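stage 2 :: seqdesign
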């Protein structure tokens, strides 16, 4: 398990609407919480730090979605989440940042705005007026004592794991 190998957090929950063939629909967790909030059998002490989704729309703000919808979409979602006290957790796959050679059988969507576009997009996002921190910093704010929720400064109580509308 993750905890047995020394990991303190997981960030595989994507609380997005259901996107057939991809993910979504099965989780509502929007804020960091003990992993037991998602899986009652998760090891004690492991935190779950969900990936950011656009409030109301329910689509992720990361990776592919930055490429499909652009930087303004991501920054807007980050602002809306920040106003709600939710730390927007973003990720980008390393392959999205390199110029990928065309390979037969690789889905066309993989090539859309990857490489140079994504490198510029990440630079623009990092230049935005947000405080960027490692995920471990966000995970450190999770109360893993079994009482649920987060410690002060951790982004809000975990029992607010509902999908929100627009601010």
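stage 2 :: out
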């Amino acid at each position: 398990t993750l905890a047995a190998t020394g990991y303190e957090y997981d960030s595989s929950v994507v609380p997005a609407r259901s996107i057939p063939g991809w993910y979504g629909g099965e989780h509502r967790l929007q804020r960091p919480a003990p992993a037991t909030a998602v899986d009652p059998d998760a090891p004690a002490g492991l935190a779950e730090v969900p990936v950011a989704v656009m409030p109301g729309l329910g689509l992720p703000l990361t990776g592919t979605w930055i490429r499909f919808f652009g930087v303004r979409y991501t920054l807007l979602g980050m602002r809306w989440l920040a106003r709600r006290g939710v730390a927007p957790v973003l990720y980008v796959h390393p392959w999205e940042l390199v110029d990928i050679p065309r390979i037969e059988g690789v889905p066309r969507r993989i090539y859309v705005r990857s490489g140079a576009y994504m490198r510029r997009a990440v630079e623009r996002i990092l230049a935005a007026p947000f405080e960027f921190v490692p995920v471990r910093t966000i995970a450190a704010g999770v109360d893993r004592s079994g009482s649920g929720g987060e410690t002060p400064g951790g982004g809000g109580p975990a029992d607010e794991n509902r999908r929100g509308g627009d601010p």
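stage 3 :: structure notes
- The chain has one domain: 3-139.
- Helices lie at 63-69, 71-83, 116-127, 135-139.
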